[in-house]
Amino acid sequence: MEPFDSPFFQGATPGWFALAILLLPLGGFLFTAFTWKSDFTRKHGHVVPLATIGVALFCALAIFKHAVIDQEPAAAHAAAAEHGAKPAKEHGGGEKAAHEEAPADLGDHRPAWSSKEHGGVYALLSVGSLHIDAGITIDALTAAMLAVVCIVAFLVHLYSVGYMHGDPRFPRFFAFLQLFSFSMLGLVLTDNLLLLFCFWELVGVCSYFLIGFWFEQAEPPKASMKAFMTNRFGDVGFLLGILFAWGIFKTLDIHEIYGRLQHMVATHVETSLFGWGLGAALTVMGLLLFMGPMAKSAQVPLHVWLPDAMAGPTPVSALIHAATMVAAGVYMVGRVYFLFTPTVLGFIAIVGTITALVAATIGLVHNNIKKVLAYSTCSQLGYMMLSLGVGGYSAGLFHLYTHAFFKACLFLGAGSVIHAVHTEDMREMGGLKSKMPSTYRTFFVATLALAGVPFLSGAFSKEMIVEHAIQWGMSGTLAHWLPAIVAIFGGGLTFFYMLRLLYLTFYGTPRDHHKFEHAHESPSTMTIPLFVLGFLAIFSVDWLPIPLFRGMHVPEMLAPPPALASLAVGHAPHHGEESLLLAFIVLVVSVAVLVAGYRLYVRTYKQRNPGPDVWYARFGRLSTTVSRLYYFDEFYQATVVRFGGAVSRAFTRFDVRVVDGAVNGVASLGLALSSLWGTFDRVVVDGTVNFFWHATHFLSRRFRRLQTGNAQDYLAFAVGGIALVSLLFVFLS
Amino acid sequence: MPLLAAEGVSHLGGYVFISSAMFVLGIFTMVTRRNAIYVLMGAELILNAAALNFVAFARHHGGGGGKGGALDGQMFAIFIIILAAAEAAVALGIVLQLYHHFPTIDVSKPDRLGD
Hints:
heterodimer, A: mainly alpha, two-stranded antiparallel ribbon, B: mainly alpha, 66% helix
């Protein structure tokens, strides 16, 4: 691929930039981790991490420009061509097209830049027929994700300087942030499933570290354990899915998988793994693979860890549990999207729909500011999954990017509030608007963006999702309308719970005067990220007024890959027509729903000025159910935890009886043998020795009598001896 | 049976008997008597028993007797007598030294070497 065009990038390939992005945070992590005791790191632990992530951000933007903006015409052309194309037949020319310009041929879904084409491959593992190569791949999806991760990570680093100021483990926090950045960027850049899984686990463990960062308190260790265990549950499925992928394709390289599947579809391969049909094998694999994202992206019923994860420091909640790591699941679904058969996509749509609805309703009643935002994240992730499930590939991923900015902004705003009033309970807040104007303004903008108020970034992505959901509904039975309905009315719910949050936090009268008196605006290291993110929440779409981004259309960059798996099961993917009428209808309906949400808010809160517990009085039992989080925790307590407890107790018994028994048995056997040996030693060996001792003693006691010292005696003995010998001679001869 | 035969071997038994008796008596004397002088006398008896044996056997095998036989046995007897004289002289010297050192000539009393 060409070097970057502008003189500034002359000679640099995206690969070097990608490598820099990957290795800089790792270097920052190692530096901070190994020097945390030094005076410099203790006092200025944020300097090196900020520098590394800043350079990484620069590199990410350079790659973004290269892979997305500069390739726009080709990609746009591809997006247009995709609608009528029959991808399977265009495979032949794909290999040669590599050296021509960009991914022009959509039948060949190839990355803008891949290290494999440049010899930049590191053989990771080679056992028998199993060869795993580690490589870097860059396409529009990667580039956009890199940019989002780096922007949010940089801002969160900056924000943490203020937020974590004075914490005794200040450098450690930055070390973990760096490690997380490295893992997340590696997850985005890698080109094979196994490495993806490795980085997937790494972000999981970083999440575990950072949720439990304040491990002296009661809540965080439990929450981190819960997050870790829940994710393990999904990862088992993910790993099994990877094994399935290996079984079917004999490779884990994503682009090679693509090529082989293409070949399979073209040659009508009937049977696959275990002698199943290709479609069945792909479906099972897809369902298993999707278990990973289900846990990572907090989809019902594996969403329970995300709200608890809010026990971690707020910058962590913003970076990991709102903008990047939880979106990794969505990213991963996007990465292997071509592998999903319609059945799997339907399942994804259902899960996403349920998540979007359930999480939004819980958000209505929660009183913890961060948990409301957590459920909101959950709900928005549901939206993304819903979108991917109904075929809105670009819409779902676009929503990922817009959501990352405004949700990070919301979390950092909430962090700013928490920093000011030292509580997360909204019942102790209220009226903070006057005290914290900067925080309030950015929070307000981000709220509108989240709700999807027209002309803010969230609105674009959300309306695209709704359009796709409606098209899906029109293509199928009545049940297919469910995602569309949830997507539309979820917008109203979102607006309502966000207004409620705004009301309880910033409007009305202060409910805790002591805390209100001490509240103050946060330092500039915290407010600057808020403003930048607020700005991005408005403008991170088509008309970005920055020269770098001018004229780009993110959704069109993210042209979906050909739905190979659908072709494999003989199900031609449908493509809804780009309909201006539909877009208009969606816009009108969305605005109507928003207005309805606003009316509800006005009637519930603004006019009556009630306390925060208004819901309990009005909806009684239903509200209790919702506020108990639909009894998910109770359910898991009763099933998984109890079952796990029973299993572990059984294992304990096994351990105590069988394993310990075996160990003790061996010990007593050894004891018996050694006592036997001891007896032998005492009786036989010592006995022999003692016998000789006794014999010698006995004889010497007798023989010493002969030594009288009297020469006459000796003479007598001599003569006696001679006589004796003589007698012997006489008798013997 | 005459005790001394002029020639031949027929009276050897008598000599051997006498010499054996002298030997045994000499041994007995040496072993039992405490007095160093008697011990010395026992030793003389033994030597004389041996000398007698030499002479008896030499005679018995045809030595001496004026018939041109060798005089080996007789020569041994004379040597023994000379040796006994020398031995007696030395032994008496030792006994004197003994008496000088310990005021006794009882052989069972001195039981230390050197001082």
